[in-house]
UniProtKB/TrEMBL annotation:
Protein's UniProt keywords contain Flavoprotein: yes
Stored Pfam families: FAD_binding_3, Rng_hyd_C
Lineage: superkingdom: Bacteria
Keywords carried by this UniProt record: FAD, Flavoprotein, Monooxygenase, Oxidoreductase
Protein name: Pentachlorophenol monooxygenase
Keyword set includes Oxidoreductase: yes
Cofactor(s) it depends on: FAD
UniProt cross-references to InterPro entries, sorted A to Z: FAD-bd, FAD/NAD-bd_sf, RIFMO-like
UniProt cross-references to PANTHER family, sorted A to Z: BINDING MONOOXYGENASE, PUTATIVE (JCVI)-RELATED, TRK SYSTEM POTASSIUM UPTAKE PROTEIN
Recorded GO MF terms: FAD binding; oxidoreductase activity, acting on paired donors, with incorporation or reduction of molecular oxygen, NAD(P)H as one donor, and incorporation of one atom of oxygen
Residue ranges of domain FAD-binding in the record: 15-355
Amino acid sequence: MELNSVKEKLVSVHTDVLIVGAGPTGLALGVDLARRGVDALVVERGAGLAPGSRGKGIQPRTLEDEIRAAGGDYPIGLIWQDGERVTERSMFDPAEDGEAGSPFGEPWMVPQWRTQEILHARLTELGGRVVFDREVTALHQDEDGVSVHFASGEGAGTVRARYVVAADGGRSAVRRAVGIAMTGAGADGSGVVAPDPILVGDVRISGLDRDHWHLFPPRGDGDGFMAVCPLAGTEYFQVVAGFLAGTTVDASPEGVRKVVAARSHLPADAVTEVRWVSDFRPRAALADRFRAGRVFLAGDAAHIHSPAGGQGLNTSVQDAYNLGWKLGAVLRGEAPESLLDTYEEERRPVAAEMLGLSTKIHRGEARRGRETRQLGLGYRGSALAVETRGDVPQEALRAGDRAPDAAVDGVRLFDVFRGPHWTLLAVGTDAEPPALPGVRTARIGSDERYGTGVFLVRPDGYVGWAGTDPKDLQEYAAQVGLSVA
């Protein structure tokens, strides 16, 4: 897909929300705000969208948004030894039937660069835009908004926004500008999950089938592991190779070819194209805060993960989905500004949990299984989770939990929930839901996942309020920007 980089002057631009960073987080937030009619601008330091498949796994919780057509199932792992096929193994623990009320039980592979293309196209379709070659150099905020200044030259200028979202990665310039520190989640407190560097690249390679994730264990001569995974929906493979601490990694096309030849039975010229290559040391770190006044942190700017387990990109996109509807409600004057305080309240504990999980998987202390699918994450402790039924068991669906899917009379609840709206769902009750502006109403018979009651489902798919008498909704509705008619 051809993507034309937008080049426009930002001498003095005013917008409601400035999103810094055009990775999956920034683009997803831009899409969500655009479909809510919020004036938002995405700016990106680079000349275009990032090219690599840094994150290639979309977990079921994120798949409940639309991206299925661009990817495919993860292949089975195939272990090689001295040029011979040794054994096969599943790379993930299988999902249980109907696990957690989602039609998507397993992770879905979509290269990150493809995810970004899809989000960028959707943003453009909705009338949004991304301005490239814009590097943040300074930021000043006051009671009314934030002024963000960009580097001199063609990209110079200032954007004045009511709110700013830092989605500019682990080395976030915006996070540094507002003085928010990150605390390492590594055992030594440094945030280094492992001191061993890793090389990753997207390549065309001959001599390996596309039905397997090819695994080459260390040979014992000082080399590390290598994995070669076909990238679904493309003609490329992702090569990942580990090195011993202190090794200087040759992150060049020729370096990739040398690694493939040294660690497999393939010759160097089997790598016929290197589309992208990079090297890194796995880190894990969490921002001390997710908000400083009118500036919010999201994605890698707020939490840096080891790639093990596929948690970084998915946690980041869910940040955007959580923040988008709240910004929209406040900017439209429907909800009090205090609603935005719940972003950090809800997302920081989730990020901390996912950081711990991805670190354990990286170190071989846990497998990719139920937790990595993120379907059990919720916000029961949030100020926005109001449970008014007094006799509901802890294991049952409660306010703060993800609203599960169900097929009722040929209609899927996920189809009812899909969109930027709230949904008021009456289950197994004759109670008449009140009329709420902008809220879709639905009624189904008793369902084992929901039990009986009335459920107000948030735009991001979580149960906000649960009860038996819809008349008790008034106070909650005012808190989140829904006025009872």
